[in-house]
Design goal:
With 275 residues, this protein is of the alpha+beta class. 35% of the residues lie in helices and 19% in strands. It has 10 helices and 9 strands. It has a 5-stranded antiparallel β-sheet with strand order 1-2-5-3-4. Helix 6 packs antiparallel against helix 8 and helix 7 packs across helix 8. It is globular, with a radius of gyration of 20 Å.
Amino acid sequence: MAEQIIGTLADFGARDLAAAGGKGANLGELVRAGFPVPPGFVVTTAAYRLLLDQAGLGTELERLLAAPDSRRAGGVRGRAAEHQGPAGVNGARIRTVFAAAAVPAQLQDRIAAAYRDLGGGPVAVRSSATAEDLPGAAFAGQQDTFLDVEGEAALIRAVADCWASLWTDRAIAYRARNGIDPHEVAIAVVVQRMVPAAAAGVLFTANPVTGERSELVVEAAAGLGEAVVSGQVTPDSYVLDRGGRLLRFTPGRPESETDDGGRQRARAVPPEAGG
């Protein structure tokens, strides 16, 4: 049976990591469990592999993975060296090859059709690698996500940029530190309708500071969750017990404001506006 190229979030679950990546598989589990999840679809890892095959990228990628990075061979040290990939892989050259590749017409048509079925409008285009959200390696922030993408052409470009972000220097280095073979990774892309968020954040099901498993920690701020996970704001922090009782609250400080759609403005907020 042919591999699935695109599916709704509900089509995937925890067993579909290889097809939907970590984010896509986990979002599918949330949908199946009845949680409110913004509607969307997954461009699976089969689409990424189709790009490699039909655009002729597979052979070139293998060649670049095997070739030593001249920057490392030349003795790059310090902070710059920390961002080089495993065995001196040159992420910049790989990304250049991806940027020059044409997305196969059949993929463009399938992505555009799924976008129309979703109703069009602004969407979030989110990377979902197969080596992501794992017990020993979260990969948070290692690949790219694009917000407020609108229109078929812009969406297809953003999906291609997500594919290329599998080879950012930070992602290559992170995989190397966690012993993940670069030849074995692939990437899916999650496309979800944008939400006009009044507030958003992250829930930890164990205290990430103390390791205490009887405590839940919520870090939240006004606007979209991207502001929290990217460090654009210092979020409010709530520590709760497993019954939902608030144990501790630490107010944050919003380093930026949000517009009516929940998007961050660059303008700083005075200290007295925080909390």
